Amino acid sequence: MFAGLMGRLAISAADRVSAPRISVLMFHRVLSEPDPVFPGETCAVRFNRLAGALACAFNVLSLGQAHTLWQRQQLPRRALVMTFDDGYADNATVALPILQRHGLSATFFVATGFLDGGRMWNDTVIECIRRCTQPDIDLSSFGLGRFELGSPAARRQAIDAVLPGIKYLDLAGRDQAIPRLHALCGHPPLPDNLMMSSDQVLQLHRAGMEIGGHTVMHPILTELSDTDAAREMAAGRTRLQQLTGAPVDVFAYPNGKPGRDYAARDVVLARNAGFRCAVSTAAGVVSADSDPLQWPRFTPWDRSTPAWMARLLLARYRSGAGALAPVG
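Now predict its structure.
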């Protein structure tokens, strides 16, 4: 409560001498308990503290609401948007009740190909190494060495080493690499409940949360042809509209780094697919001259709520964010 009150006072003072801006926050998972392998991942206790501080300090909007008010030049002071990427089940089971407790709205970007028992490739890598019962693992076939697995920190080191090498493979390359890693780890059983079910997407929608597109299979868009990139965007949007019975007109680029994970072409494709607002993972805040199809976001990593609020305040009034020049 104190962090939220102090944040509101500081932001109100700064907003009086500058044009209204929008802070767009990016989350992925909200775990029920802390994860020893990923201690920085947001858990329920920490998210509840953050949600309370945000409810006190900001006018929290969905992305669509913020875009509409931004277009009309009617943004409230202290405007902020909370977004969740990928479609993890804990967004519905853990994050939603906390959001409701604090009277907050949020936007959830769902990759539809993983609904109802699917699993993203990066989570397969993580769970293979997390659940490996061997004392070490030889990753020389991935261009790496041997890694000890005797502690959560050691497992994290192995995960962080192998993830980048697989990330930018095409889908066929990933399909070959993942089973190879699974075999190296001794074929441990892998979870099939990490991602949302179709019913949970509908639950979020019925609770008043905004559902946004995030493609079907969460590809690196720059690795795809024009046709395949357009299909990923359109098919994901169509599936979500079928599920919710409502328009889906906001989008998050998978991975989201401008120029690396998506190109200027993909900004055009997003617009052509029917999205009126889209977000990247470039750091920054939204201002009057931001491209509505490339809004930047802020990632909340600080463990301390006061430190987190202070960094958010600093980021809010720094200028500049990565974006691509518009095409067409």
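The radius of gyration is 20 Å.
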